[in-house]
Amino acid sequence: MSAPPNLIGMLPSELEDLAVELGASRYRGRQLATWIYRKSVYALDAMSDLPKDFRSALSDNRTVTLPDVARVTPSLDGSRKLVFRLEDDSRVSAVIMPDDDRITLCLSTQVGCGYACAFCLTGTMGLERNLTAGEIVGQLLAANALLAGEGQRVTHLVFMGMGEPLANFAALVKAVRIFTDAKLGLGYSPRRITVSTVGLVSGIEKLGREDLKVNLAVSLHASSDDVRSQLMPVNKSWNLSALMEAVRKYPLTHRQRVFFEYVMLDGVNDDVEDARRLARLLRGVKAKVNLIPFNDWEGSTFQRPPLPRILAFQSVLLDADITTTVRWSKGEDIGAACGQLREPVPA
Ligand code: SAH
Fold this sequence. Notes:
CATH superfamily of the largest domain: Aldolase class I
Number of strands: 12
CATH topology of the largest domain: TIM Barrel
Bound molecules: S-adenosyl-L-homocysteine
Structural class: alpha/beta
Order of helices and strands: HHHEEEEEEHEHEHEHHEHEHE
Number of helices: 10
Largest sheet: 10 strands, mixed
Number of domains: 2
């Protein structure tokens, strides 16, 4: 028998509908949302201002369940990888990354990933399934529960864990709405949320239409179709010009920019000529580039370029007035860095 549906992952408006369905008022649904999303209380018994009969109707038909934290692995750099065991026994991870005054949580949206980027370990798993909105929201609630013991809370969210967020669109949007609902949800500003995509043009367009105001990050990784298609099979469906056209149309507030991720691969995409082409590609785009030195994994055929090459690449972009940072991934020592998420970890 499968478990009853989880209240975690339901929109506040859906909780109101549910209250009515169970014979209570919409107000009771709002209280329920407040307990779960604002007060971080997950035991129906502890929701003291809800009538007893409503609570028992709820517990007959529903659960309030956080994903089970199977393992927490601390890194030397202060980040921590949380491995979740889901109800069907599959595993995904989220990474808590503290940095100065922020604590960023990197969230997964799928078990595995179907896009098979050549340099990405998660890509070797293939797609197993989409996460539900409850499983996505649950990663944040579980991370916050862990941090609460230390008097802290996640401040920023990036959808850069396992999976392709825009390929799990409905659950992604639902989770974001729960995260950003200021009254009955978690109250995160959309400015503090970043959705990263492999470059699904139709998904970028749809995300723009949802008007969530979240930041968009695009995994670019090459400045020519030739190289990009070799690294990222998705480029054969949507090439650079289609991708850049969608990016240019993504609605931005005046201070917002689109982030471009560019994994630096030795001798593949790291020449100054690549950088010059990248600068041309980004001309007229409100862009910020994050160069990510390749994180190695057992069996990969790529290498990280030597530092001077990375810095030379960066200078070309800086000279073209493109804000460019080198992002040293967190959690490399614990298999939590960009593109290293895979569960179970290969032997
Ligand atoms: N599927 C989405 C979300 C994943 S974000 C996307 O592609 O954007 C994870 C980021 O890490 C992506 O930019 C991905 O291309 C990058 N990445 C994957 N493998 C990597 C590796 N081995 N080293 C460095 N970055 C990597």
